[in-house]
Amino acid sequence: MSEKERRDFCIECRKDTEYLLQKRDIVKNIRDKEYTFSITVAVCVECGEEMSIPGLVDKNVREIDEQYRAVEGLVSIEDIEKLMKIYKIGKAPLSLALGFGEVTIPRYLEGQVPSKEYSDVIRAALSSPAYIKQKLTENREKLTDAAYKKAMGAVTSLEGLFSVSEKMLGVIAYVFEKLEEVTPLMLQKLLYFTQGIHFALYGGPIFSEDCRAWVHGPVYHEVYDLFRDFKYNPIDDARFALLEGIADALTDDEKRSVELVVNTFGMYSGKVLELITHNEEPWKEARKGYGDSIPSNVLLSKERIMSYYEAVNQKYRIDTEKGLKTYINDMLDRAS
Ligand SMILES: [Zn+2]
Asked: How far is CA 147 from CA 64, 103, 223, in A?
């Protein structure tokens, strides 16, 4: 239904008339309980009667379903689809894993409304890898080996996601909120710059993890392990569904540091960012004595990152995007 062309045939007026969409409350009985739902109706502007408009009935069925689930605190179909995606599990195996009958989840996906009890089980599974792990273990024998192993693999990788510090997870979540495409190489650099800028602006680290001077620049290995499967491709991860809202744990100062980085460094590819870190003093010092492609695991200390970016801040005023862009351009000139 477009915004401007609201005309259709009115059976009272016996002609095409203009109509208005209005909200109306209706009372319905579901499972012996009375509910008030807000639905959308079309009203003829000439005679004031309700008109029947194609698509409106379907829209109201969806709206009532959503309102009913919200009032009862029941999961939505999208929630169930999310659960299947996160844990890489099909509808029938998920049903069995949760201790339901095999056809229960398939029916929910077709629109049947779950009971409160079953809905709570699904919600618990959505919010905790430990819970679904326990369920998978309990119902191990009902599942095929392949389905069990795949889902357990997903649980393990999720536990990994929550093994980094809360602040690190917040920064990662915020970066992915702000940038469309991020490769693992790019993410490593953005984390490093965020740490450096936060040190320079606020005198302390944004997250507790330490990075090491690997061949392609500073690397936070806990994060490297999380996303190594994506290689040189953008990270596209179903696990991120669980990160929703996690960036809210960051303070305004912390968010500002991330924003400064994504709005400047975030415009470049991982390879270009690598050129920048390769020309920075802390990385060059840590790599002293190692040839270009010789692996090393030398620590890049927080103290050194801080002193370096404090000096950069003195020279470039990196508390502004303009200052950061000047710094980036200078570093790229030096690299060419
Ligand atoms: Zn009419």
From this structure: 35, 16, 27
Task: Determine the distance separating the centroid of ligand 1 and the alpha carbon of 336, expressed in angstroms.
Answer: 73
Contact by Cβ (8 Å): 23, 15: no
- Residue 3: pLDDT above 60? no
Ligand 1 mean position, distance from CA 20 (Å): 11
pLDDT given for residue 2 in this prediction: 47
User: Ligand 1 centre from 10 Cα, in Å?
Assistant: 5
Q: Is the pLDDT of residue 244 over 80?
A: no
Q: What is the pTM of this model?
A: 0.72
* Alpha carbons 201 and 23: distance in angstroms, whole number: 50
Closest by alpha carbon to 133, among 152, 160, 157?
Answer: 152
CA 243 to ligand 1 centroid distance, Å: 50
User: Ligand 1 centre from 62 Cα, in Å?
Assistant: 27
- How close is the Cα of 39 to the center of ligand 1, in Å? 20
Ligand 1 centre distance from Cα of residue 3 (Å): 19
